[in-house]
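Postdoc handover notes: sequence design on the structure in folder B. Input tokens:
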């Protein structure tokens, strides 16, 4: 799983990632998983290729951030079957980037049902592997 967010939303991203981790999902967050000296762009590209899902935290800070838009576009281009979920926080649906308008988005208040569904997908995926 790949988490896309604005750097100014780091606290919110950390909290959401803690909740994602409790589902058993493995996730990538650039501010945590890219080490000093690593090529940031290549790390992001590699992780998007590996990921089954992309979660985008859409806030007033992230809605037009170039890197967030690049990550969404890269996820769509690299893995057209990837599940992309936008989590809205203090943003109206009408303000989301065009690339997300065909997706069912959730508000931050609907995060728990999303996490329950994610937990089930993780269980199913892990069952398929074993």
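Designed sequence:
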């Amino acid at each position: 799983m790949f988490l896309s967010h604005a750097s100014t939303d780091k606290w919110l991203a950390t909290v959401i990632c803690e909740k994602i981790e409790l589902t058993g999902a493995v996730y990538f967050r650039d501010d945590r998983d890219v080490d000093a000296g690593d090529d940031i762009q290549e790390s992001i590209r590699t992780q998007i290729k590996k990921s089954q899902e992309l979660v985008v935290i859409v806030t007033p800070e992230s809605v037009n951030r170039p890197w967030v838009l690049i990550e969404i576009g890269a996820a769509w281009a690299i893995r057209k079957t990837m599940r992309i979920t936008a989590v809205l926080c203090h943003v109206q649906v009408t303000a989301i980037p065009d690339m997300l308008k065909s997706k069912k988005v959730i508000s931050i208040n609907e995060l728990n049902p999303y996490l329950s569904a994610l937990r089930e997908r993780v269980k199913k995926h892990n069952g398929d592997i074993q």
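Context for whoever picks this up: The mean pLDDT is 89. Don't rerun without checking with the PI first.
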